[in-house]
Amino acid sequence: MEIDMGSKTEKRGRYVPRDSLNDANDPDVVLASLPIGTHFWKRVLGAIVRKYNSQHAKLYKVVSFKTMRDRSSFYFSFFNELRTHTTFRDADPRVLRERHVQAVVARWLERDMATASIHNYLSFLRTYAGWIGRPGMVREVAYYVGAASPHAHRKQVAVEDRSWTAHGVDIEAKIAEVAAFDPWVGLQLEICHRFGARPKEARHFRPHGALIPRELAVERDAAAYPECEEFVRFAQGTKGGRPRDEPLQTEEQRELLTRLQSIVAKGWYVGEPGRTAAQNADRFYNVLRRFGITRNALGVTAHGLRHQSANDGYEADTGAPSPVRGQQERPDNDADARYRTAIRLGHSRLRSSTFYVGTMGKPGQADAAEDQPAAGGDPVEQSS
Fold it and tell me: Is the pLDDT of residue 129 over 80?
């Protein structure tokens, strides 16, 4: 006998219909039961988020859990600010208007919100406007901040060296200082330093089984480093969930991997045992603030170690400093070095290397040659 598992469920040995329609928690039921202007705006917003949040903004696919979490958190924050700190105290999430967006963007500008955050949040709002039947309502950033505002456009090219050494920070000494206070955070920073890893990749790194031979490495990663026979796989915490294989090039990298394997339990990631991933992330950034690893204190962040790795790698490949470190003439193997930098950091366009090492073109503009796909890769929109 065939059972329609989508409409029935097992209970006490027999199949009975599942109450999926007219459920009190069903988003459509919630939205139909609450009038426009209700005081229960959080229930309304929650229903909208539950109904649409898994959808990609433009493509027919689902988004990552991180994207869903970030969107949800932002939407509740946005409407709370709109209703609490502007004149639109009765704003209903189903009736978002352009003047609502303008009011909150004005508050963002008052508190000097980062340009990248403004762009990301308005992108979230464009997606949301589509959910409620108002596609195209949320305009480009320049409309809200002014065309001449420094917030109008993201910086797509590095114009300053964000490496730790560029800001006078002794990398090994600072990491040792952190490790003395919290060994786990110290190890996570070492991974960022030695492998050019994103902080999330470092916290989710599983050292056992990470060392792989060339024949098992991602083909694109192996092709970019023909001189390397061993690679280190980063499979968790990566951008888009795509694994990337870092070439094992130095004894410092090998020593760190061996040390991690002796410290971290098999199958476990580099983080305090007993803590969740979220708790380890909170601990990571709390410790960094304690030791001044912020833009406001030392002028550097954990992500700056990724910039350090990118610029050091470019210089090792070309024999010359990167453009962001003052190089004015293009080395003969500039394109190859950019390609290797982009691939090693998990990107797929030569253009992405400009986020780290800069460009030979005008400040803030990438060369046309740097805007090409790397080995048939997909476009990459921003540094991360």
Answer: yes
